[in-house]
Amino acid sequence: MAGLKSLAKDTAIYGLSSIVGRFLNYLLTPLYTEVLAASSGKYGIVSNVYAYTALILVFLTFGMETGFFRFANKTTEDPKKVYANSLIFVGGLSLIFVVLCFLFLDPISSLLGYPDHPDYIAMMVLVVALDSFQCIPFAYLRYQKRPIKFAAIKLFNIVGLILLNLFFLLLCPWLDVHAHSLVSWFYDPEYLVGYIFVANLIMTSVQMFFFIPELRGLVWRPDKALLKRMVNYSFPILIFGLVGILNQTVDKMIYPFLFEDRQEGLVQLGIYSATSKVAMVMAMFTQAFRYAYEPFVFGKSRNSDDRGTYAAAMKYFFIFSMLAFLAVMFYMDLLRYMVASDYWEGLSVVAIVMGAEIFKGIYFNLSFWYKLTDETQWGAYFSLIGCGVILALNIWLVPTYGYVASAWASVAGYGLITLLSYFIGQKKYPVKYPLKDMAVYLVLAAALFVVGQEVTVSNVIARLAFRTVLLLVFVAYIVKKDLPLKSIPVINRFIK
C-alpha cells in the first residue's frame, strides 16, 4: 500500500509539472500569433522547424531512456554504470550529429527550405542535441525518485522561455522605439522568428547547469558489452518512437513542400498550427486523466487478468474526452483569443483536430493488450499504417483543400489504427468494453454539440450561459449514470 501511495504521489508531481508546463507553453501561442502576422507565414516557419526537431530528438535519444530503466533495475547491473553508458552513447551520438550538421549546414538549410537562414537550423541543431543528452539525467532523476527536482527544472525552463520570449518579442521592440541605444547593439527588429530559437537555445543551455550534480562521480568509460546489450534492447524502441512521432509531425514537415508557392504553404501551416493549439486543450484534459488513472490501472494489474479494470479505464477516458470536447467547443468564443484574430479563419479545424486527439487517446487505452501480451510489434505495425495513411492523404488532398484536409488526415490515420487495434486485440486479448454505454455518451455529446452550434444566440454572454447549461446537462448525466457524488472523495463528506 505504501508503494502505491508513493507511486501516486510521484505521478501527481510528474503529471502536474507536465500539464502546467504544457499550459504555460500554450500561453506563447497568443504572443507568437500577435507578433507574427498570419499572412507573413513566420509562425509556419516555427511550426515546421520544431516538427523536424521533435523527430530528431527521438532519433538521438535512441530509446535509451527506456533502455536505462530496463537495465538499471536489473539486479545484475550497476545502475551508475548503466547511467554512464547511456550518457556516453546519447552524448556521443548527439555530438556526431552536431558536427555533421555544422559541416553541411548550408546544404541542409537549403534542403529544408531555409537557404537564407542557416542560423535557424544551427540553433535548433544545438537545442535538439542538448535536449537529447538531458533526457538521460531526467530519466536518472525519475529512477532516483526525485520528482521535485524533475518538476522544478521543467517548470524553470518553461517560465524562463516565456520570459525570454516576452523580452525579445515585446520589450525589445518597445525599447527599440523608445530607448534605441539600449538594444541597438544586439537587437534586429526583422529577426523575430530567430529570437524564438535564440530563447530556446539560451534556456536549454542554462538547464545543463542543473544537472552538474548528476554528472559528477561517473566513470566516463564505455562498457562495450553492456552498451551493446543496451543498444540491442533500445533499437526497436527507437523505430517505434520514430514512427510514432512521425504520425504527429509528418504533416507539419511536408506541408510547405505541398504547394507550388512555398510562402503560401507556410502561411497555411502557420494558421493550422496556431488554431490546432486551441484543440490541444483536449490533450491537457486527456493527459491529466492518464496521469491520474494509469497508476490505478497498473496497481490493479498485480491482480491476475483484471480485464474489467481496462474496460472501466476505457469508459471513463471516453466520458471525460466527450466532456473536454464539449467544453472546448462551447467556450470557443473565449478560447479563440488564444490566437490573434487574423488566424481565426482556421478555427474550423479545432473540432476535427480534437477528434484526432480522441482517437489517439482511445488507441492509447487499447494498447494495453499488446503490452500485456508482450506482442509490442503490433504497436509498430499500427504506427506504420497510421503514418502511411496520414502521409498519403496529406500529399493527395492538402494541395487542393489546405489545412482542413490535413486535420481530417489525422482523424483517418488514428481512426483506422484504433479500429485495427480493437478488432485484433479482441482476438488476442479479449476485453468486454462497455460499447453501448460509450455509444450513449457519444450520441448525447453529439446532440448537445449540434444544439449548441445550431441554436442562434446573438449575445455572447447569453450564448455562453446557454452552452454552459448544455454542458451541465452532460455533467448531470455523468453524475447520475457513472459518477455519483457519494463516490467522489471530499464531496462525499457533505452528502449523507
How would you describe this protein?
- Its main location: membrane.
- It is found in: Cell membrane.
- The chain crosses the membrane at residues 12-29, 49-71, 83-105, 120-141, 153-171, 191-212, 233-250, 270-293, 313-332, 344-366, 378-397, 403-425, 437-455, 461-479.
- This is Polysaccharide biosynthesis protein.
- The protein is built from 22 helices and no strands.
- Helices cover 78% and strands 0% of the residues.
- The protein folds into 2 domains: 21-258, no CATH class; 260-496, no CATH class.
- Helix 15 packs antiparallel against helix 17 (350-366) and helix 15 packs parallel to helix 21 (435-454).
- With 496 residues, the chain is an all-alpha fold.
Summarize the entry for a quick read:
It is a multi-pass membrane protein. With 496 residues, the protein is mainly alpha-helical.
Give the topology string: H per helix, E per strand: HHHHHHHHHHHHHHHHHHHHHH
| Helical percentage | over 70%
Task: Tally the beta strands.
Answer: 0
Report how far the terminal alpha carbons are from each other.
28 Å
Question: Would you tell me the overall average pLDDT?
Answer: 87
Structural class: mainly alpha
Membrane topology: Multi-pass membrane protein
Protein name: Polysaccharide biosynthesis protein
Transmembrane segments: 12-29, 49-71, 83-105, 120-141, 153-171, 191-212, 233-250, 270-293, 313-332, 344-366, 378-397, 403-425, 437-455, 461-479
Keywords: Cell membrane, Membrane, Transmembrane, Transmembrane helix
